[in-house]
UniProtKB/TrEMBL annotation:
Origin species: Mizuhopecten yessoensis
Record carries keyword DNA-binding: no
Keyword Cell membrane set for record: no
UniProt-listed InterPro entries: FAD/NAD-bd_sf (IPR036188), Retinol_saturase (IPR052206)
Protein name: All-trans-retinol 13,14-reductase
Domain of life: Eukaryota
Length: 631
């Protein structure tokens, strides 16, 4: 008992003196840094340099030329002889890690199961239309921004990011035939002023919300640190409360849900709906997401929302030559069946499905961008996976929702159709969460004939300044809503594009319902659909490789951001030689997966790439400032 009391008094002494806790924290960090420098493995070469950023060139529009880069089919003869790293999957998390490691001199082989590299950055063509699939807008892509400099390290600066409309999102609330529209602006002051204009009686609540947004700008730093520090140190700092004291935004806004925070500010359901409208960007309802995540998302677009000139496939087109420069390759139609372990349990290679069987390829390290669930439930031996500390984390966090998508090609220009370079978020009720779950609880037959409660609408053709020249008098639209794998599970075993008429009928009725609701909001679109294709969770499973067509890999509920999961979901696994990259180890979205790639490369190279990136960002900003002076 005396020991317990003594420990209690000891902790109370520290807690009552926050400055002392901070000193202890800093000493631990310094000790860790010294231990790495004096006894740790030698750091790899710095992959980042301002010299990597080259001028943007002319857009490559010749399909054959592009396909020779992004559609290199797998053949054993194309596999490099001496491989440092094999990356499973070519999403931006995989390509990002591969390109960064290549900048450090590594020979990297990227294996993609689809027929085109890029993951959610890929595009496809049908009936003379080009469609994007997963990248609809990106924040913080202005010159000199950290995000921009990092992606320039991956692509050599060859990709341009046009800024979208200052009203980058429009929230549509209510009956589609008479919706109330709310404009979301991309500057902090304008955003707040627009909200106050629409909700004059809620000025106090809005001002408090803006203060919370400002506090949350460094929210992800605490989450990032939990993954960067050694597990023992991260666990110690979390258990003692030091993490919460040093990284206040993370501790303040991880344990409170988005709904809880907004309920404390206002009773106005319409205002709450507008402030949480973009929860579809991470796929978690407001009652289950940490407020810090929603705040981070809104902050992400303060300063502009951006698209990609020429479409998202530009990313893979220009990242692949960076990987090839040091002898690496990016090969498609390369389905990895399993990760090969040696007798000591180290990951040493992969088995790839071939036309007449399989082939084994070996490397010093294996990096998985296939998702944590796929990696541990499909690619590793069950007995090995279940012994990993990551395995129970997969269950505690869970997988994200799936989704339905509708791709529409329209005969008409942007001007004719009255569409803009912005997104629309459409909700038929202000109680979005209740409406969503009521719809998801329906049978597939009932859902197919019911009004869809929420829709994300994008007009990719209006965001790309090169579109009108490449595809004159044509436009595209993408509509996305949540969906359930269970609705279509009975047809999972059927061959893709050869499923039953019942399956086609159900998904097409859902797609047509979504289109009909949109044409009520945008009447000029009615009758202009020239191409119409609906994707279900089974489509997502086939093209993206997720087990149940998950939208964002692991779910982004509060559990994912708590220390227990955050510390385990990191690049370096407890299986020697196996690393993880992409959205599952950080957060979803283009930027989240990209930084997941940097975090993975940082772990492999044993160096703080965030510091290296910061130095290059300073160089780039100085050059921009100097250029303005001499202009």
């Amino acid at each position: 008992m005396s020991v317990d009391i003594g420990m209690y008094e000891f902790l109370e002494y520290f807690i009552s003196r926050p400055w002392l806790i901070l000193v202890v924290f800093l000493l631990y960090v310094i000790m860790y840094a010294l231990s790495v420098m004096l006894t740790g493995p030698k750091s790899g070469k710095n992959p980042f340099s301002a010299s990597h950023i080259k001028p943007v060139g002319d857009l490559v529009t010749d399909k054959q030329v592009r396909d020779r880069v992004i559609k290199q089919r797998f053949k054993l003869s194309k596999v490099p002889e001496q491989i440092d790293d094999i990356v499973i999957g070519s999403g931006i998390g995989g390509l990002g890690a591969a390109a960064i490691l290549s900048r450090s001199g590594h020979c990297v082989l990227v294996l993609e199961q689809h027929d085109q590299a890029g993951g959610c950055c890929h595009t496809f063509h049908e009936k003379g239309y080009e469609f994007d699939t997963g990248i609809h807008y990106i924040g913080k892509m202005y010159e000199g921004a950290d995000n921009r400099v990092l992606i320039d390290m991956v692509t050599g600066g060859k990709v341009e990011y046009p800024r979208m409309s200052d009203i980058y999102d429009v929230v549509c609330l209510g009956d589609p035939s008479k919706v109330k529209k709310y404009n979301i602006k991309d500057e902090r002051k304008a955003f707040a002023e627009e909200l106050i204009k629409e909700f004059p009686n809620e000025k106090e609540a809005i001002e408090k919300f803006m203060v919370m947004l400002k506090e949350s700008r460094s929210y992800l730093m605490g989450y990032f640190v939990l993954k960067f520090l050694p597990k023992w140190l991260a666990s110690f700092l979390s258990a003692t409360g030091i993490m919460g004291l040093v990284f206040r935004p993370w501790s303040k806004y991880t344990y409170r849900s988005t709904k809880d925070v907004l309920d404390s500010l206002t009773d106005n359901d319409d205002l709450k709906a507008v402030l949480t409208y973009s929860f579809g960007d991470y796929g978690v309802a407001p009652s289950k997401s940490p407020f810090g995540l929603q705040a981070t998302l809104l902050n992400h677009y303060m300063g502009g929302a951006y698209y990609i000139r020429g479409g998202p496939s530009e990313i893979a087109l220009h990242a692949i030559p960076v990987i090839e420069k040091t002898g690496g390759r990016v090969l498609v139609n390369a389905l990895v069946n399993k990760i090969i372990l040696n007798q000591k349990g180290r990951a040493i290679g992969v088995e790839v499905k071939t036309g007449d069987g399989s082939a084994q390829i070996f490397a010093k390290r294996i990096i998985s961008d296939a998702g944590v669930s796929n990696t541990f439930k499909k690619l590793l031996p069950t007995e090995v996976a279940q012994k990993s500390k990551i395995y129970p984390t997969i269950k505690s966090v869970g997988n994200s929702l799936s989704y339905m998508s509708v791709f529409i090609g329209m005969d008409g220009s942007q001007e004719e159709l009255g569409i803009k370079g912005q997104n629309m978020w459409c909700f038929n009720r202000s109680d979005q969460e209740k409406a969503m779950y009521e719809w998801l609880d329906l049978s597939v037959e009932d859902a197919a004939v019911s009004e869809v409660p929420l829709m994300f609408v994008s007009f990719p053709s209006a965001k790309d300044p090169t579109w009108a020249k490449r595809f004159p008098n044509k436009s595209t639209c993408l509509i996305i809503t949540v969906g359930r794998y269970e609705w279509f599970a009975r047809w999972d075993a059927d061959k893709v594009k050869h499923r039953s008429d019942e399956y086609e009928g159900l998904k097409n009725r859902m797609g047509r319902q979504m289109w009909n609701q949109l044409t009520l909001i945008c009447p000029k679109l009615e009758g202009r659909d020239d191409y119409f294709e609906v994707g279900s969770p089974l489509s997502n499973k086939y093209y993206l490789g997720f087990d149940e067509g998950e939208m964002y890999g692991l779910d982004h509920t509060i559990n994912k951001f708590l220390p227990a999961a955050a510390i385990q979901l990191r690049p370096k696994t407890d299986i020697p030689g196996l690393y993880l990259t992409g959205q599952d180890i950080l957060v979803c979205g283009f930027s989240g997966a990209l930084y997941g790639g940097m975090l993975c490369a940082s772990s492999i190279l044993n160096r703080n790439l965030y510091n290296d990136l910061t130095k290059v960002v300073k160089e780039v900003k100085a050059a921009i400032k100097e250029g303005k002076k001499t202009a």
